[in-house]
Amino acid sequence: MPHLHSPIRTIEYIEQWLKDYQANAGTRGWVIGVSGGIDSAVTSALCARTGLPTLLVEMPIHQHLDQVNRAQEHIRCLQASHANVDAVCVDLTAVYEGLVLALPNIDDESGALALANSRARIRMTALYALAQQRGALVVGTGNKVEDFGVGFYTKYGDGGVDLSPIADLMKSEVFALGASLGVVQSIQNAPPTDGLWGDDRTDEDQLGASYSELEWAMQEESSGDQAWSARQHEVMAIYRRLNQVNQHKMQPIPVCVLPDHILETFYLAQS
């Protein structure tokens, strides 16, 4: 599995890419949701390095205390080292509870997942409200395994962003950047979690495989080499299943393109 030869060069490249994107877009800075995880910590640190106005947004919804503490520690650290960083806490618990009360018959297993995804969609709405107010861009925090491997994100939730600076990095590479950027140790040591359930369940608990295993599967999937262990076969099956069922997130929205003979018939009928 390839690894970053130089995290510093990667950091500098992404930093310049962000500056160039902002200059071309003609907007005024960044808005990033901060969860207490490595992806949002690295993304927000990269944005802070651009020197452009950077707003870090906490959006608790019945959040586990460990996640809250890590997010706040990261915000304090980044504000201490970057004068361009502001922060705000938008408690969305009441908004979420209002949605729960408004939705009928949502107390079964599928309803629980729907509500978990609703947390991400509520947060996306808040981020875009803040970004529009500031003339800023909403920055995505997804990595390559999540965004293009297993589709482990919420459609129109944390997948609803303006740009994705770390989406070409594997999870292990994000951790490598985090170490080089000096991300607080509590985040570097924390098991990855999506923060959508109000408890301490990890991404591995939900996916059935670790990120290192999924990175292996993502790179091995097209190799044709089947000399795998029993666990590797299991991981590959998990990867392929998730990749297949989540294609609707990863592919462009289907558009019904009308053929010429249908359009001609339509316009003839209107004339």
Largest sheet: 4 strands, parallel
CATH class: Alpha Beta
State the separation between the terminal residues, measured CA to CA.
Answer: 62 Å
Widest β-sheet, arrangement of strands: 3-2-1-4
What would the principal axes of the Cα set say about the shape?
Answer: globular
Q: Give me the number of helical elements.
A: 13
Number of domains: 1
Low-confidence stretches: none
CATH architecture term: 3-Layer(aba) Sandwich
Helices and strands, in order, run as HEHEHEHHEHHHHHHHH
Question: Could you say which structural class the secondary elements and strand pairing correspond to?
Answer: mainly alpha
The CATH superfamily label reads HUPs
In short:
The protein is mainly α.
